[in-house]
Specification:
The protein is of the alpha/beta class and 418 residues long. Helices cover 46% and strands 13% of the residues. It binds alpha-D-glucopyranose. The site of alpha-D-glucopyranose has 12 residues, from α9 and β11.
Length: 418
Amino acid sequence: MKTKLSLIALATLLAAGGANAALLRIACGSTGGELELCKTSVNEWAKKTGNEVLVVTPPNDSNERLALYQQILGSGSDKIDILQIDVVWPGLLASHLVDLKPYSKGAEKEHFPSMIANNTVNGKLMAMPWFTDAGLLYYRKDLLEKYNLKPPVTWDDMAAEAKKIQDGERAAGNDKMWGYVWQGRAYEGLTCDAVEWVSSYGGGNIVEPNGKVSINNPQAIKAIDSAAKWVGTISPKAVLNYGEEEARGVFQSGNSVFMRNWPYAWALSQKDESPVKGKVGVMALPKGGANGRNAAALGGWQLAVSKYSKNAKLAADLVMYLTSPEVQKMRAVSNGYNPTIASLYKDPDVLKANPFMGDLFSTFTSAVARPSSVTASKYNQVSNQFWNATHDVLSGNSNATDALGRLDASLKHMGPWK
Ligand code: GLC
């Protein structure tokens, strides 16, 4: 009887794929080609190790994904072992994540130190960096040439060029042509765009590292009021409901001169089936006036292991594989995801596929972080108020003086921040 039972148990185990086989679930992203790419690497690891991994797809919008993660983690559920988390979340989610230090064998030393610092909470390594992001300006090289224009230096230059080309192309028969597409929906993406405008005009960073609420200042007001003028002139009114993919859809089909987006849009714009293949330039976002500066928001995604996973050790092993130089290189070459490992920015294959990674290296290393460290567990509330205030101005329901004045009062009330 005893022998029979253990034989049945053994057969069950073998059917599951081997004596130590486990089933892991990973939530990765689904913007552009992200999902397929995640599946490819995950399947390689599964094959190598004899385990099974299910890839689940969370919502695209960062803040909606956060809400879902918080719901799952808040209930202590073991339904997700590995989570792809935004660069602004380590502080928010730390209490639900596993310290990866015991599993990393020092691999974190190869990554940009600022990203490891960002992912370290109370001395614990809560996530491994997977890819980094910075806001970039995409433009139509062919159209700028056709109209004898140089890539713009300031936002005002950009708006003037956008208008000129938009008018010219419409007169020539393309009535779908727009000057500039970007992320104007009331969500985390708008926070990124607006942090860039404000910072480029020298208007600070909403809540400063020393805890001071700085958003109510003349430069920030100017930045947001200037952006509001684009809506309905060089940008379609629908931009108020655009995320990354909507903006890319318009630009990649050939119907916008300029686009603000993250690096992932590059590889997609260069695919054979892309109508703008070979016609696209990538540069730093414009300055806020002659005395302003180029400012890119720092984005990017990390991989973390849930504290409620029943297979944390194995999950950490998959995280270390996915964030390894080998996989990061493959993701950079095939799909333009920016590595978080400095040495890969000198790799000839990476640079050949993505010349902008070399040309704009300093854009990536000096990108502006959103105020997630100083606002920690309240970051999402702060960001939510900021994007709503900005959206109010963009949609003409308020002006920046009033909207940022109200935001200032509300953020001070929510503090103190230090
Ligand atoms: C990108 C960035 C991320 C940001 C998001 C906003 O995915 O990498 O950091 O929060 O866009 O839409």
